[in-house]
Amino acid sequence: MKRVYIAAVEEKAGKTSLILGLAGSVEGKVSYLKPVGRASGYRGGRPFDLDAEVAAEVLGIPDPEGLVPLVALDYPRFWTPPEDAWERIGSAVPEDADWLFIEGRDWFGRGLLSGLSDLEISRRLGSPVILVAQYEGEASVDRLIRAASLVGEALLGVIFNSVSVETELPEIREMVIPILEERGIHVLGTVPFERRLRSVTMSEVIEALGGEVLVEGDPKAEVERFLVGAMTGESALRYLRRIPGRLAVVTGGDRPDIQSAALSCDRVKGLILTGWLRPERSILARAAERNVTVVLVAHDTMTAAEMAESLIGRARIRPDQVKIIRELVREGVDHERLEELVSGR
Questions:
Q1: Three-state secondary structure of the chain
Q2: Is the Cβ–Cβ distance between 248 and 271 less than 8 Å?
Q3: Which of 12, 104, 178, 208 is deepest in the core (most CB within 10 A)?
Q4: Res 302 pLDDT > 70
Q5: How sure is the predictor about 233, in pLDDT bands with cuts at 50, 70 and 90?
Q6: Is the pLDDT of residue 53 over 90?
Q7: CATH architecture of the domain covering 2-197+317-343
Q8: What tens digit of pLDDT does each residue of 91-137 get?
Q9: Which CATH number fits domain 200-309: 3.40.1390.20, 3.40.50.300, 3.90.1640.10, 2.40.40.20?
Q10: Alpha-carbon gap, residue 295 to 209, rounded angstroms
């Protein structure tokens, strides 16, 4: 069985989407394992990592809970793994797959305190490592080189994910790849940025923020950006017209000027009203006419905006996005080189 451990240089690098993309490009039966998950939902009243449900659905694996033997919690201040942690991880490794893609921790270095870091897990499982990173100039390359030096001989290579074709790809090809290859770090691919993969649905926003739904609107409506409405209504309208993509506006429930401006923009799919302050009835009537979701939350505006913004890039992958992901990975990754390097281990 060919094993590949996918580790992220930083948070929200796109490990799960990359794995699902790679799974559609290799031959044979593919399985998935996330030794230490992050509590992002609940199953049967217990914390559960929802990435496993997506992987199980896409790969046809019947038991999603078995794919995540350990679920880490950030409560109260640090997580102490159970005494049988390594036994659970070892017993979760499938025996009947041709390929096993192993998803690492939130970011490279997470788990050093608990003893369950990417370095230790990949070493114990005897799996070579692929580092996945997003490109943000020199600093991101520095982080990547640091991580690569720690992985050492177990490193297969790196993949840059969510790369802007217009502004970042030429720089990566002309400057970054030659530098990394000279250092013995194989660049296995650059996966282009796709805005459709960076969206969340209003139902996901409601689930994360809680609160009371005042106008249901379209729960499946996708949002790519969140705008904090703290300016005047006139300024908000000008700003809304300049920002691309589908939007949700986060503002106080007592700001009818901003709420009205938001409802004048066709690209606004949701209103998140803060401070537990109910809006005017006329606002709710206009939202219902436009099929815009309105949710009332107790959080202050900045807290609600930060919670909503944190969903971008971390929301559960939807089935309709998998085809897009696989096309991007198929075009952006050197699969022949990947198979050659894995087979050589």
A1: CEEEEEEECCCCCCHHHHHHHHHCCCCCCEEEECCEEECCEEECCEEECCHHHHHHHHHCCCCHHHHCCEEECCCCCCCCCCCCHHHHHHHHCCCCCCEEEEECCCCCCCCCCCCCCHHHHHHHHCCCEEEEEECCCHHHHHHHHHHHHHHHHHEEEEEEEEECCCCCHHHHHHHHHHHHHHCCCCEEEEEECCHHHCCEEHHHHHHHHCCEEEECCCCCCEECEEEECCCCHHHHHHHHHHCCCCEEEEEECCCHHHHHHHHCCCCEEEEEEECCCCCCHHHHHHHHHHCCEEEECCCCHHHHHHHHHCCCCCCCCCHHHHHHHHHHHHHHECHHHHHHHHHCC
A2: yes
A3: 104
A4: yes
A5: low
A6: no
A7: 3-Layer(aba) Sandwich (3.40)
A8: 999 988 999 999 999 999 999 999 999 999 999 999 999 999 999 99
A9: 3.40.1390.20
A10: 9
